[in-house]
Amino acid sequence: MNAIRTPTRWLVGLVGILLTTALFLVPFAFIFVTAAKDANDASMLQFSWPVHFQLWQNIVDVFQARDYMLVIAFINSTVLTVGSVALMVVCGSMIAYVLDRRKSRLNPLINTLVLAGLIIPPAVVPTIWVMQSLHLFRTLPGLILVEVAFGLSFTVLTMRAFVATIPREIDEAAIVDGAGPLRLFFRVIFPLLKSVIVTIVVVQSIFVFNDFQNPLYFLPGNQNATVQLTLFNYMSQASTTYNLLFANILVITIPMLVMYILFQRQIVAGMTSGAVKG
Amino acid sequence: MSYTTIRSGEQVSLKRAPRASAEHVDKTYPLWFHLPGGIIYLVLFIVPTVFSFYFAFTRWTLFKSTFIGFDNFVLFFSEPGLIGSLRNTLVYGFLTSGLKVVLGMMLAVVLSAPIIARGYLRSVTFFPVLVSAVGVGLTFQVLLDPFNGVVNQLITAITGHDGPGWLTDPNIALLSVVGIDVWKGIGLATLIYIAGIAAIPNEYFEAARVDGASSWQVFRNIILPLSFPATSTVIILSLIGGLRSFDLIWTTTQGGPGFASDVIASVIYKQYQAGFYGLSTAGNVILFIVVTAIIYPLSRWLNSKETVL
Predict the structure, then answer these.
(1) What is the distance in angstroms between the Cα of B171 and the nearest Cα belonging to chain A?
(2) Which residue from A205, B73, B121, B307 has the highest number of Cβ atoms inside 10 Å of its Cβ?
(3) Is the model's pTM score more than 0.95?
C-alpha cells in the first residue's frame, strides 16, 4: 500500500476532499448557517450566509422555548445517559469477569442470552406491560433500566474480550494478600479495565443520548422529554420555525462532537472491536 | 505398608485438590456477580420477549387480554398496508447493508492509502455517525424538500428540470431513506474496514510489490479476502440495524406517503399509538422471526467461512 506515487496521493486526496466536502460537510454547514438566520431568511431553505447573523440569539431562544423545556430535557438526558451507562459498566463488567474466569455450567446459557440481546428486537408493548406492573412506566428510572437491559449484551461482549487479557496471577496475588471477591474485583480488577470502560462509556453514551425510540415508547409526555424529542417542538404542518429547529439540532449535536474530539481513539477501538479477529 | 501409605497419601491429595479448587473458584468468582445485570436483563428484556408470543395471539388492552388465535397475523398478512411493511423491511435491510459493505470497503481502501489529508477525511466521513437519527432525518427533510430544498434547486440549476419528490413520491421515498441511512452509517462501516485492513500483516503487501502485482490484484487477492472478518462484522451489524430501523424512517417520512415506506418497526409504533396492542405485538413477533431467521444462519455461515480462512 506504500507504492503509491506522490502525484496520485495528491490527486486522490484532493478528489476525496472535494467529494466529502460536498457530501458530508455541506449538510453540517447547512445546519450551522440555518441555525444563525432569522425566521424569514431560514424559511427560504437556501444554503446561503445569513442576512442577519443571530446564532447566539437563536440559541438563547431555543433554550427559553416552552418554559425552558430544552434545559429540562438536557437534565433528563444527562441523568438518563449517566445513570444507564454507569449501571451498564458495573453490571456488565461483573458479568464479563465471572463469565471469563469461571467455567460454570451456566456459561453456554449466558452466552446464548448475550447473543440474543444483540439480535432480538425488544418487544415494545409487553415491555410497557411489565414496566407498568412494576410502576416503572413513564419514569426516568424505568427508562434507565430499559436502556441498561438493551445495552448490556454489547457491554458484556466487549468487556469479556478485554478481561481475558488480564493475567490470572493478579487474582492469585490479591487472594494471597487476603482480598475477598468484592475487593478483588472492585479494587484490583475494575481499575485495570479502565481503557475498555472508557470505550464502553463513550460508545454507549452516544447511543443512549441519541436514542429516540426508547424515550418515545417508555417515557412519553412533554415534562419528561429527552433532548431528541425537543426537536419536534419546531415542526408543525402550518409553520416550522427552521432557524430554531436547526439551532436546536446544533445544540444537541455539539456534546457528541466534543466527545468524539476528546475520545477519538476509544470510539474507534469500541466500534471496531470484533472486526479484527485472529 | 509403605506402598499403601504412599497410595493413600496420593488418594488424599487427589481427593482434596479438586474440592479445594472448586471451593476456591466459588469464593473468588461468585456466581451472584451475574445477578444485578441478569435481573434487569431478564425482567425488562427476556420476560417481555417471552410474553410477546402470548399477547401476539390476543386482543389486548394492557389490563385485559382475549385469546383470538391467529387473527392478528391473518390481519397483518391480508392488509396491503401491513404486508407491504414486511417487503419494505427486507428491501431496507438488505439495501442499506449491501451499500454499506460496498461503499464502506471502497472508502476504507482509499482512506488506508497514504493520501493527503487522510485524518481530515476519516473524521469528516465519521461525523454523521455522531448525529442522532432525529437530527439527520429532520435535516434531510429540509435538504430534500421537493420545491425549495437545496438538492432539487441544484438539480434544477444543472438540468433545467424539476427534481423528484425524494420523500413525497411513493415510488422512491423508501429508497431516499435508504440513501440517508447509508449517508449516516457509512462512517462506521468505513471505520471497521479501516481497522480490518490495518490488521493485515505488511509482509503480504511487500510480497505483492516484489512480485509486481497491480493495485487491482492487491485489492482482489490480499485486501478483499484478508479483511473478511471486517466484512462479516459490517454485514451483521448493518443488517441487524437495518431490519430493526425505526428512528430515521419515522423522522423523515413517518412511513408515508400512504404506506409506501412503512417498515415493521414503524407499523409496531402506529398500531401501538392506535391502541391495537395485540396487533402491535404480533408485528413484534413477526419482526423477531424475520430478524432471527436471517441473522442466525447468516452469522453461522459467515463464521464458518472465517475459520476456513
Answers:
(1) 23
(2) B121
(3) no
pLDDT digits (tens, 9 = 90+) for A137-147: 999 999 999 99
Taking contacts as CB-CB distances below 8 angstroms, the residues of chain B near A206 are 130
Name chain A contacts of B235, Cβ cutoff 8 Å: none
Q: CA-to-CA distance for B7 and B1, rounded, in angstroms?
A: 10
> CB neighbours of B191 closer than 8 A, spacing ≥ 6?
A268, A271, A272, B122, B126
pLDDT tens readout for residues B270-309: 999 888 899 999 999 999 999 999 999 998 898 888 766 5
The Cα B205–Cα B226 span in angstroms is 12
Contact B130, B276 (CB under 8 A): no
Residue type, B238: S
The residues with which B59 forms a beta bridge, in sequence order, are: B66
Could you state, in order of their start, the residue ranges of all structural domains in chain B? 2-55, 71-308
Instruction: Search chain A and give the residue with CA nearest B217.
Output: A1
Q: How far is CA B86 from CA A125, A258, B77, B299, in A?
A: 19, 39, 9, 21
CATH code that applies to domain A67-272: 1.10.3720.10
Instruction: Write out residues 75-104 of B within 8 Å (CB-CB) of A.
Output: none
CATH code at B71-308: 1.10.3720.10
ipTM reported for the complex surpasses 0.90: no
Nearest to A125 by CA among B47, B274, B277, B61: B277
